[in-house]
Amino acid sequence: MNYLNLDTDKIKATAKELDTLLADYHLYYQKLRNFHWNIVGRSFFDLHIKFEEMYDDAKLKVDEIAERILTLRFQPVSNYSDYLKISNLKESPSEMKDIDMVKTLLKDHGAILEQLRLVIKKANEAGDEGTIDMIGAYIGTIEKTSWMLDAWAMQTSETHPEVK
To answer: Which CATH architecture group holds 8-153?
Structure first.
């Protein structure tokens, strides 16, 4: 037990998954900076601004995730070499077309969502409502951003399927 009245052995698994999430968000943040700096063409103004919004959000999440690990009384991973080893994401080249940048981010969102759900699973097993609450909000944010990027990538002739 600790000052959170959580079983240390049980929350260790949560902290481990949070470390992976922290690595994911560090690579995601850097990828967004890369895309923000290197976007060209007709989508420049829209995506340059959107990528900046996204990396500002990711930067806050990096800090919140690390602080949650510390709140659970574990030390977060803090070296890029370690992030590259444990992250679910891969680095991207700087020279990409706008549509490829967006598709890459959507793929990364899928991996991040899987990791977020894994964190919730481990936190639930440990009775860690604080982590569950924090991560649940992250899921809503990344799902909404994914919808927007997906809508941007759609052809104007495409429509959303109807619910029946």
So the answer is: Up-down Bundle (1.20)
